[in-house]
Design goal:
Layout: H1 13-29, E1 42-43, E2 51-56, E3 74-76, E4 85-92, E5 96-97, H2 104-128, H3 134-159, E6 168-169, E7 176-185, E8 193-199, E9 204-205, E10 211-213, E11 216-221, H4 235-242, E12 246-250, E13 253-257, H5 264-283
Parallel strand pairs: 1-4, 2-11, 3-11
Antiparallel strand pairs: 4-7, 5-6, 7-8, 9-10, 12-13
Helix pairs in contact: 2-3
Length: 289
């Protein structure tokens, strides 16, 4: 579940246009990588979202001036965290404000705004009925009646606000974001992987589903790490398991075995016991005659 919204940075139209122009130009000219499903450690599909560009992490410094730019149409998905593994999946993103999250003033504002919106829509539809007939007129009258009933219901809530619990949410919109899970090497610990997750920008569409504004996602790739399989936990675990000489697959897990290392004290005692025999050989003068 997401928060209702994050506060967007504000720019003058001129500032935003200059930054957008520079970022767009850079995005268009930078070299792109082709995602190779046979070689890359990558899962899932990224159809149905905005355009995705994969960029070699060695070129990410070119985008340094735009890291803090709150661009609505181009997203630097994982700047300074180049992906070693990629997993794409769809995620239902929504937010919920419960009754305790809403002040009385907020409730009044939201209800009044919605009632006014319904009244305006109802009046517009009433004006259109003069040009309708038959089934279209019947449908319009039914819609007008439902809007009037909804206005009445919300006016009842407004007049007895303390008697109602309220909530506000976009849950039923069922908005699906394509989401990226990715693994990257931590900057402070060379031997450790960390996980990141980001939603990707979708194109903007009109009511008919036609794209009215394309949006872009730039994903930086660790070109060395992306070509190998990766452990699901820390590098130490991978190194630990690599020390086993016998490995077998059993169901959904692996079974490991290796000869148990000798206890350090036992190994020392065995070494000490062998030392006198070695001294006898060294001291035998016949070997050096």
């Amino acid at each position: 579940m997401e928060k209702e919204s994050r506060k967007r940075k504000s720019y003058t139209p001129e500032e935003y246009a200059i930054k957008l122009r520079g970022l767009t130009l850079l995005m268009n000219v930078v070299d792109k990588l082709h995602a190779d499903r046979n070689d890359w450690d990558i899962e899932g599909d990224w159809n149905g979202t905005g355009v995705i560009y994969f960029v070699d992490s060695r070129n990410q410094s070119l985008f340094a001036d735009y890291v803090d730019f709150d661009c609505r149409s181009i997203k630097l998905v994982n700047y300074n965290r180049p992906a070693a593994r990629l997993t794409f999946f769809k995620k239902h993103r929504y937010w919920v404000l419960k009754n305790d999250d809403l002040t009385r003033e907020d409730k009044l504002t939201r209800i009044n705004a919605y009632i006014n919106e319904l009244i305006v829509k109802r009046e517009i539809l009433i004006d259109k009925t003069d040009n309708l007939s038959g089934m279209a007129l019947s449908d319009a009258k039914g819609h007008i009646g439902r809007m009037q009933e909804e206005v009445h219901n919300w006016e009842q809530v407004l007049n007895n606000l303390d008697g109602y619990d309220m909530a506000v949410s976009n849950y039923q919109r069922d908005y699906q974001y394509l989401t990226l899970n990715y693994k990257y090497r931590a900057q402070d610990q060379e031997q450790e992987y960390k996980n990141g997750q980001e939603h990707l920008l979708n194109p903007q569409r009109d009511g008919r589903g036609v794209i009215t504004q394309q949006r872009y996602n730039i994903i930086f790739i660790d070109v060395y790490e992306i070509n190998r399989e990766h452990p699901h936990q820390h590098k130490e675990i991978e190194n630990f398991l690599n020390n086993f000489t016998l490995t077998s697959q059993t169901g959904k897990q692996q079974l490991y075995a290796r000869v148990k290392p000798k206890d350090e004290l036992v190994a020392f005692e065995e070494s000490a016991q062998a030392q006198p025999e070695l001294e006898k050989v060294v001291r035998n003068p016949t070997l050096f005659d």
